């Protein structure tokens, strides 16, 4: 039984990692009061840049750095449009996604079909070979451990540091935070850049670890699922971890169910997105809304400093 369960659990961990990375960044962005719908575009640019640089240099470190830089560059464009020019956040985020899909496909067309070495797995002598525990805990790559480690780090940052409390204050009332002397625009710029970095790394995980290759639109809607995860988690890091692994499990289930039952693949491919809709519906309705649905008060509201 465990021989069958372990590979499935490992697959769920891998499927959840890009969601957790991208959603962790978006959680910080939204806690600062900014709604960025461009996660899908940032992830694709990160996936393309990470794969291309790793292929050209042979260095995974350079590839991850390039993925992070690509995501941050996309986020900087969004931040400039919405924070400096006061453009509509929803429209700008959608435009960012469309731009990222097109640009990544254009630049990445030269790399389609080329192989690249996958991110190396952790190999701890005496531990990696242990039955059950070894493959579950000690045979993953850096980004998997990084995604999990970021959950307590974000909780500590948002709840136990002055910078995190200032960021939350900006997300609740930018005007009040500005009146107290906090640099609202600078804080939101920093949050957007962090969100881009995490989305870029989420994309890099797809092209360098999950399926070490580049393919057009390989994120397959994961950016939208990451957005839903932030709402599912009620903007709390620990719930984000649970949600990411829940949605990762749904994705793996549809692959196994498709092979076992022989039904049309399109039917099972719908499952993660159906689950996304159901989760958003449940937590937005009735008593569940009052318990868990607590969006930052200033989310999506533009701010222009007076004077």
Automatic annotation (TrEMBL):
Q: How does it sit in the membrane?
A: Multi-pass membrane protein
* Chief place of localization: membrane
Q: Name one Pfam family in it.
A: BPD_transp_2
Which InterPro entries does the record match to this protein?
Answer: ABC_transp_permease
Location within or outside the cell: Cell membrane
Q: Which UniProt keywords apply?
A: Cell membrane, Membrane, Sugar transport, Transmembrane, Transmembrane helix, Transport
Q: What is the organism field in this record?
A: Pseudochelatococcus contaminans
Which is one GO molecular function term here?
A: transmembrane transporter activity
Q: Give the transmembrane region(s).
A: 6-23, 35-55, 61-83, 90-112, 142-158, 186-208, 214-235, 242-261, 267-288
Know the name of this protein?
Answer: Simple sugar transport system permease protein
**Where does it sit, as one GO cellular component term?**
plasma membrane
């Amino acid at each position: 039984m465990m021989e069958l369960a372990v590979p499935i659990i490992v697959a769920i961990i891998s499927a959840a990692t890009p969601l957790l990375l991208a959603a962790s960044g978006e959680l910080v962005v939204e806690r600062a009061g900014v709604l960025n719908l461009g996660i899908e575009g940032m992830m694709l640019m990160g996936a393309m840049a990470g794969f291309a640089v790793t292929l050209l240099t042979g260095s995974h470190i350079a590839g991850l750095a390039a993925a992070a830089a690509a995501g941050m560059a996309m986020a900087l464009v969004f931040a400039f449009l919405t924070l400096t020019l006061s453009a509509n956040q929803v429209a700008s985020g959608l435009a960012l996604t469309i731009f990222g899909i097109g640009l990544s496909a254009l630049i990445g067309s030269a790399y389609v079909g080329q192989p690249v070495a996958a991110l190396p797995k952790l190999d701890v002598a005496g531990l990696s070979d242990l039955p059950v525990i070894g493959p579950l805990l000690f045979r993953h790559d850096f980004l998997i451990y990084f995604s999990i480690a970021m959950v307590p780090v974000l909780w500590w940052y948002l709840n136990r540091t002055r910078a995190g409390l200032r960021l939350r204050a900006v997300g609740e009332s930018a005007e009040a935070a500005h009146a107290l002397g906090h640099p609202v625009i600078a804080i939101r710029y920093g949050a957007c850049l962090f969100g881009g970095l995490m989305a870029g790394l989420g994309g890099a995980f797809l092209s360098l670890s999950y399926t070490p290759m580049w393919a057009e639109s390989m994120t397959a809607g994961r950016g939208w699922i990451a957005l839903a995860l932030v709402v599912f988690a009620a903007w709390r890091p620990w719930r984000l971890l649970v949600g990411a692994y829940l949605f990762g499990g749904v994705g793996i289930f549809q692959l196994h169910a498709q092979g076992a039952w022989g039904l049309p693949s399109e039917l099972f491919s719908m499952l993660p997105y159906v689950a996304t809709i159901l989760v958003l519906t449940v937590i937005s309705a009735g008593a569940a809304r009052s318990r868990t649905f607590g969006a930052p008060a200033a989310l999506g509201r533009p701010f222009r400093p007076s004077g």
